[in-house]
Amino acid sequence: MPFPIRLGVNIDHVATLRNARGGLRPDPIRAAHQAIAAGADGITAHLREDRRHIRDADMRRLKSEISRPLNFEMAATEEMVKIACSVLPHACCLVPEKREERTTEGGLDLHYDTDHIRRAIGTLKDAGIRVSLFIEADESAIETAKALEADIVELHTGTWCHAIEMGDAAMAKAEFSRLVRGARFADAAGLEVHAGHGLDYATAERLAGCVQFVEFNIGHFLIGEAVFVGMSEALRQMRHAMDLGRGLVKV
Ligand code: PXP
Q1: Is the pTM of this model over 0.90?
Q2: Residue 97 alpha carbon to ligand 1 centre in Å
Q3: Does residue 105 register a pLDDT over 80?
């Protein structure tokens, strides 16, 4: 019997909207509560070096107020490791970060600065935090994640989703195969397998058919849909798409 995929809701873009006016509204923590009430299995938030959306105080409030696991997305810098060890989220997802990028643009390069990433993983795990690495679905990256003793790999779905959006069928096909192969390879290596970036109802449904995926982390599309249909309806539709893809509900 297939198991349902966990849905982690990324609330960064509620903070983006709040910060646009410099005040307190809309409150990203209120969005997290609503997402949980609508069935989210966890909340993800990315504390970026430039604090463009989520801020330190948001992370502390999320940790103390929400009833579901908090996934703290961050770059593997000393500053972020220190903050994570004081917030003590359920998990940390290490991502690459460039100041000039609009969003996380690719997976971590684990072959660059490996010792630094190894140290960050060790410190976080010693604090009792599960560690996830956001990587491309390549065998060598997955093998390195395993060697670095990460608990989880989150496979970057952005290129696949973008290819679909742009109507590039050949690229979409190749990227989808890469994701499925990567998920199988990581699962066989004993890593928990997550996916995220750019997912919408259709792509989440399609990817859910790959049984190695345990969790999807979805933000931008869901928060955008919530503007039109409300958080609860957006999550209901996403849950339905994921369950449909996994074969848990009939059409
Ligand atoms: N997972 C990771 C590691 C991310 O960096 C992001 C974007 O912040 C997401 C998931 C969510 O991506 P999106 O907002 O495109 O759904």
Answers
A1: yes
A2: 12
A3: no
